[in-house]
Amino acid sequence: MNIMVIGGGGREYGIAKKLSEDPRCEKLYVLPGNGGMEEFAECVNIRATDLDGVCEFASKHDIGFAVVTPDDPLAMGMADRLRALHIPCFGPSKAAARIESSKIFSKKLMEKYGIPTARAVSLDSLESALEYVNGAEPPMVVKADGLALGKGVFICRTKCEAEAAVRELMENRLFGESGARVLIEEFLEGPEVSVLSFTDGKTVVPMVSSMDHKTVFEGGKGPNTGGMGVIAPNPFYTERIAAECMERIFIPTVRAMEKEGCPFTGCLYFGLMITKDGPKVIEYNCRFGDPEAQTVLPLMETNLLDAMRACENGDLDKTSVRFSDKCAANVVLTSGGYPGKYEKGLPIELKAPDKGTMIVHAGTKRTANGYVTAGGRVLNVISVADTLSEAVSKAYEQTSRVSFPGMFMRRDIGKTALDHINAR
Ligand code: AMP
Ligand code: GLY
Question: Could you check whether the bond before residue 70 is cis, i.e. omega within 30 degrees of 0?
Answer without folding.
Answer: no
